Amino acid sequence: MNSVNAILLLSCPDQKGLVATVSNFVFQHNGNIIHADQHTSQTTGLFFMRLEWNLDHFDIPREEIGEVIKPLAEQFGMTWHLQFSDYVPRIALFVSRHVHCFHDLILRKRMGEFKADIPLVISNHPELIPLIEHLGVHSEYIPITPETKLAQEDKELALLKEYRIDFVVLARYMQILSGKFVSAYPHRIINIHHSFLPAFAGSKPYQQAYDRGVKIIGATSHYVTEILDDGPIIAQDVTKISHRDSVEDIMLKGKDLERIVLARAVRLHAENRILVHGSKTVIFE
Amino acid sequence: MNSVNAILLLSCPDQKGLVATVSNFVFQHNGNIIHADQHTSQTTGLFFMRLEWNLDHFDIPREEIGEVIKPLAEQFGMTWHLQFSDYVPRIALFVSRHVHCFHDLILRKRMGEFKADIPLVISNHPELIPLIEHLGVHSEYIPITPETKLAQEDKELALLKEYRIDFVVLARYMQILSGKFVSAYPHRIINIHHSFLPAFAGSKPYQQAYDRGVKIIGATSHYVTEILDDGPIIAQDVTKISHRDSVEDIMLKGKDLERIVLARAVRLHAENRILVHGSKTVIFE
Amino acid sequence: MNSVNAILLLSCPDQKGLVATVSNFVFQHNGNIIHADQHTSQTTGLFFMRLEWNLDHFDIPREEIGEVIKPLAEQFGMTWHLQFSDYVPRIALFVSRHVHCFHDLILRKRMGEFKADIPLVISNHPELIPLIEHLGVHSEYIPITPETKLAQEDKELALLKEYRIDFVVLARYMQILSGKFVSAYPHRIINIHHSFLPAFAGSKPYQQAYDRGVKIIGATSHYVTEILDDGPIIAQDVTKISHRDSVEDIMLKGKDLERIVLARAVRLHAENRILVHGSKTVIFE
Amino acid sequence: MNSVNAILLLSCPDQKGLVATVSNFVFQHNGNIIHADQHTSQTTGLFFMRLEWNLDHFDIPREEIGEVIKPLAEQFGMTWHLQFSDYVPRIALFVSRHVHCFHDLILRKRMGEFKADIPLVISNHPELIPLIEHLGVHSEYIPITPETKLAQEDKELALLKEYRIDFVVLARYMQILSGKFVSAYPHRIINIHHSFLPAFAGSKPYQQAYDRGVKIIGATSHYVTEILDDGPIIAQDVTKISHRDSVEDIMLKGKDLERIVLARAVRLHAENRILVHGSKTVIFE
């Protein structure tokens, strides 16, 4: 049976009775909790929760659930987001010259590793367009120069709207987005940086890692904010290297990290498992 | 403020209203939930929960909490265990010839890495006794031969009782315990096996790993059951090896794994974070 | 400059003067050693070496090098294999129903992550053929039943010959090869098994891992021998799981391991970095 | 048989015939090479080698080997270091308030995990002195204030000389050494920094990691240079954390990393397995 679940993400100041109130709400309306996960940050005094319940015998129609939650949320000062498990989020991929993350995401989507559509790919490199179209994905070539940047970004924002995009994934996209663009999709733009942030922010992180002589390299997926490589971290992974590894070897090993770490972030976001507070994330796996 | 928390571990068949009922119980008696973690096994239909709440304004005296929980638990068919955060569990260490895990646990205890007492160490090797006593720990030398085994185990069981031991840790203890002994402390005897179980069960796992030519070795902490190296797994960790590693190199690398994996299991058990079902564990970290 | 290197892999009983003799041979003929790696197994008394040198000013023509090595090798009882860095090995991929490893290898080859051609893909599932052909790779549909197995394998062996295949990669191929087939390509058939061997050999390893309640899962690439899942191990990797992971979650996490571990084995073999002795491998990375 | 090996570490500009010349030297004097490892850095054009050979039938007396190597080394412009396997290096441990690395190294030494003596421990905290002496190790209490720093360091340098110390290990020593001190033991002072350098250099790295919201923490052992936390990295390791980990949890997990990573560096240095070039290390494992 493919019945539908409701997924509620919420955060608020910690206080007595939060778990009881929220779980009672589901129980009293005859819902069955499938997953419940909560976290209280001792340093900020904030409470975070992800609740997933089955709607099979739930006695509130799904289109009215939000209305019923509203007063409850106001009472506790909750920020909240409600989604349903049959909704398929829509991703726009941005890609430049390096295509391994792009290919990886397209393949994972096809093999059903995460539930999302990719109706739009934007590239600032014309040579990728035929390749993308060959894969049956709609693509737009939008070159960026310092002079055209803001105008081109407006075009991109219009496309995101036209294609009803839920979130943007920068799959090794080599352009820095403007503040305007970033603020149009707050915590909805995911980037992959090919280092273990905060080490080696900025350009050529593998070269930086080689020059510093580290024994482990990493990759970091994070939400994009206005400060470069500084947004809330979603996932990280690392692998060992040695003095035998040239910069090219490091790049090769790093590509596997990038693919895995970016795919993990995309899946977590698509499944509504991430709550952001300040510069940090709570991940409900 | 060093106020006391109650920690409730429970499991029962999954059913609607479990989270609501349990969290209501705490809320209505004015308790503040510090941590709540639950899990539903889709294959067995079992529900597991660990609930930790602060007793500062809780309106049931701690010695009566169990009585109040009882009818609630019966209603849902719950197996449950209640403990308080100011209780310091008492461990008996069993040790043979290899002392790295023994030393490691003594040191971690001293440095406060887990909250437990170690009032008793039992060794079947006489040469360890002065070393153990030098560390200020009470020890008993109990040699084991096939003929004396059952009688000596009775002596050990009497000591465990005398010292009010909560759980036993086999820190590379090289004797197989009898069924009688094991069943006296069900899911309360923790062993460290120096392989990635179920690979290389039995004796000389590092030699077995070397002979097979694996590229990764491991260590496994588990509860002891009557079948050797077959009990519910608590923690595992691994490290890479190569053709350059001799059996001695593998042993050396393995010792670090053993220390970490056994210490992790001891801490998890001491903090009431483990629920056993069948041959598996639920770990609430 | 894309000059050519010679790569010599050798093994023999350990004895004095081996490194000196081999490196002198290169030096006296005006070769420049790029990489030299050796290993002596203390348990077997065997010596292994991989030597890579540049042929730019080497004074023996490449087609005669083998002839000159022959008497040297005989003197020390060496088993040896000579190859040149401009040779592109030819791979046949065998694939069944799970296509993630197949896709991964095709993509890595395209992106230049290893140097090899894949002129032939064989599948026992007809529905994959159009997909494979769409990727521009030649494929053959060869169904296998217990009755047709040996005849069909003869057809496969003929194809391997026709396409001048150097080594075979079983990219989640779900058929057990006959002894005849295996012995036609000794240490030249690479399989990926989706467990941390020797744990969970045989069928449904992820289900086995779930049932046993392990906390870490793995994948193993190995050479195929006549005994199932028992050949010399080339590479292994692992990832952590918890009680929260269903069999489906474990499969998903395992797929990333399988891709990486199989790709690593293919690259190592294609670059002549593997020496087999008995049931073990020496890997010169 | 406990026969003695010679261990030669060397580096020089890469050139033809290096491996042949060095291995011939050993062969012609009837030595048996036990391990040989070399590396050529493509970016710097430098050649590095570690050669270990058995002296059983070597026809040069050990005290004259250096003299024979000298002209060979001059011919190729080699920097070199010769040591014998029966030499036991002498370590001075510096320790402040955190004692886990100190205890770990003392225990590993006792259990024979590395071959070195620890004849001297220096602490700037008086309360550690009785603890250290109880372990049977000689200790000196040398408090440091900004005013007394240079004078106290002179006292320390005198002690290092008196105790014929080969290398210094800062086992979570919380004082920054002066340039004078550092230059007296170039590449012979090993520090453990409790972060994944270059991330979180300086003070309170675990707090920094918590504040940044990273998903992985690390530890780094490195040689001390005049610039804080900037010296050549010897070893690094990492472990995963999540939003559930408080700063205290991170510290606890980090302590295991620190112990392992520092012990690895001490063993590598004691066994003459490290060559430094510029800000990087070559590690011959």
Describe this structure in words.
The structure is a homotetramer of 285-residue chains. By secondary structure, chain A is an alpha/beta fold. Chain A has helices at 18-28, 62-76, 100-110, 128-134, 149-162, 179-184, 205-212, 247-270; strands at residues 5-13, 32-41, 46-54, 79-84, 90-95, 117-123, 139-141, 167-170, 189-193, 216-223, 233-240, 274-277, 280-283. Chain A has two domains: 5-84, ACT domain (Alpha-Beta Plaits, 2-Layer Sandwich); 90-283, Formyl transferase, N-terminal domain (Rossmann fold). Chain A starts with a strand and ends with a strand. Chains in contact: A-B, A-C, A-D, B-C, B-D, C-D.
Properties at a glance:
homotetramer, 285 residues, alpha/beta, Alpha-Beta Plaits, Rossmann fold, 2 domains, seven-stranded mixed beta sheet, four-stranded antiparallel beta sheet, 8 helices, 34% helix
What does the secondary structure layout of this molecule look like, with pairings?
Four copies of one chain form a homotetramer.
Chain A: E1 5-13, H1 18-28, E2 32-41, E3 46-54, H2 62-76, E4 79-84, E5 90-95, H3 100-110, E6 117-123, H4 128-134, E7 139-141, H5 149-162, E8 167-170, H6 179-184, E9 189-193, H7 205-212, E10 216-223, E11 233-240, H8 247-270, E12 274-277, E13 280-283
Parallel strand pairs in A: 5-6, 5-8, 6-7, 8-9
Antiparallel strand pairs in A: 1-3, 1-4, 2-3, 9-10, 10-11, 12-13
Helix pairs in contact in A: 3-8
In short:
The structure is a homotetramer of 285-residue chains. Chain A is an alpha/beta fold. Chain A has 8 helices and 13 strands.
Helix content class of chain A: 25-40%
Give the strand order of the largest sheet of chain A, numbering strands 1, 2, ... along the chain: 7-6-5-8-9-10-11
Oligomerization state of this entry? homotetramer
Known CATH architecture of the largest domain in chain A: 3-Layer(aba) Sandwich
How many strand units of chain A?
13
